[in-house]
Specification:
Length: 435
């Protein structure tokens, strides 16, 4: 949905547990199901890393190894881009209010220290027990596992408006998106000087991370908009099958192989050769909030739904094929001589000739009821990464916006783009190549 594509789809130690079984494990042992999932009561990265235990097993025998549950904040590239998608997301856009570049630099230095600690499941600050001061950490993640938390930072076009003397460092690929067919953009879900993508296998932990980043930013940046998102949890689908969106179809089948370094250099990672050395090893992110008209979709026949996507709903296979990853055959005709995959099917338009790809990292969202219509405000928080949006995401979305059959059922209500920094080594700070 924006679905562009088919190519999409796609420090200090935390406090000891004192050998007590945590609330999360009590819920597991009690057999809590779906309600617990929504409350973040389970996730692929539990503190005990999925080990099967009986209620009778002594707590003292429970291992406390968290290493498999940690994604390091440091590295050549930022985590959260090619990292396997976690269960939950909170995306936030900030507007910078700092008066001087030095203040912005200090913000990113503080954010780096905090993000690296929270990725390891650590609380912020040295002490939380001074009764005369606010705690150094908000506390809602105390005792919880790291849950494979990743925090990914980028800056938007408006960051380079001249306030901080950086106008000349704005990369050409960081361009404002043109108007697309199906756009009904709203300011409260668009733009931003800084974009922050927080992912984790526990929503409470993701919220904790964003909340503390916003707290650290006081006096230097303010929240502009946020959106939470989810997919089926890792525990509900241990096979790791391609997730389904809220229309019931698999979302992300055609993503490029993130383990193929050459492919990632071609599709995702920016290069100094692109014209802006500070972005070497970074990537460009497009974010689109796409509302689905689920009530209309739910009244559509299965045949119409499959023709819209160009895929079978149950298997995810292309129409006329059997398996999800079978090759797309756009030349195949039915008994009446019509294309088996309709000319305006989403998969056909998104795929094109197969040469233009993006890496999508999208999540479903549900934001309650639209008070004006009484209908669900639910859909897709579309996020993709590419080396140059002018050559990848923009032409792909222009094609989709013109004639995608899916446009009957969706509307784009939010939009933003960000240049996501290269990774950073321990001892450095995120954004240092720019600042």
């Amino acid at each position: 949905m924006d679905r562009p594509t088919e190519h999409n789809e796609g420090q200090t130690k935390s406090k000891p547990t004192d050998n007590k079984i945590s609330r999360r494990d009590l819920l597991r042992l009690a057999g809590v199901g779906g309600a617990g999932l929504l409350l973040g009561a389970t996730g692929v990265g539990s503190l005990f890393s999925g080990q099967m235990r009986s209620a009778a097993k002594p707590a003292s025998q429970i291992p406390e190894d968290k290493s498999a549950d940690i994604v390091s904040f440091y590295g050549k590239h930022q985590a959260g881009i090619t990292t396997p998608a976690q269960d939950f997301i909170i995306f936030a856009a900030f507007d910078v209010t700092a008066a001087a570049l030095g203040d912005v630099r200090k913000l990113f230095q503080d954010w780096t220290k905090a993000a690296a600690a929270m990725a390891k499941g650590e609380l912020l600050g040295d002490s939380n027990d001074n009764l005369n001061l606010p705690p150094s950490d908000t506390g809602e993640a105390e005792g919880l596992s790291p849950s494979r938390t990743t925090i990914t930072f980028g800056v938007g076009p408006s960051f380079f408006d001249g306030r901080y003397g950086l106008a000349g460092k704005r990369p050409a690929p960081l361009t404002d998106l043109p108007a697309f067919g199906g756009d009904e953009l709203r300011e409260e879900w668009s733009g931003g000087d800084i974009g922050v993508q927080v992912n984790a296998n526990d929503m409470q932990i993701a919220f904790h991370a964003l909340r503390n980043l916003a707290r650290i930013a006081r006096g230097k940046a303010v929240l502009r908009w946020t959106q939470e998102g989810f997919q089926r949890t890792s525990s509900s689908d241990p096979s790791g099958a391609t997730p389904r969106n809220l229309m019931g179809f698999r979302d992300g089948t055609g993503n490029p192989d993130v383990t193929d370094e050459a492919e990632m250099n071609k599709v995702v990672w920016a290069s100094a050769a692109d014209g802006m050395a500070w972005m070497n090893g970074g990537s460009y992110m497009a974010v689109r909030r796409i509302r689905m008209r689920v009530e209309v979709w739910d009244r559509s026949t299965l045949g119409d739904q499959e023709a819209t996507f160009g895929r079978h709903r149950a298997s995810g296979a292309p129409l006329g094929a059997v398996h999800e990853r079978d090759k797309l055959d756009f030349d195949q005709k039915d008994e009446k001589g019509k294309p088996v995959i309709p000319m305006n099917a989403h998969v056909r338009l998104a795929h094109g000739d197969g040469t233009v790809k993006i890496l999508r990292r999208s999540y479903s969202y549900s934001s309650g009821i639209d008070n004006k219509t009484g209908q669900l405000d639910a859909g897709l928080l579309f996020i993709c990464y590419n080396r140059d949006s002018r050559k990848q995401f923009i032409p792909m979305q222009q094609k989709l916006g013109q004639s995608d059959l899916l446009n009957e059922y969706i509307v784009h209500t939010g939009s933003a783009v960000f240049a996501c920094f290269p990774g950073v080594s321990e001892g450095g700070y995120i954004g240092e190549t720019l600042f």
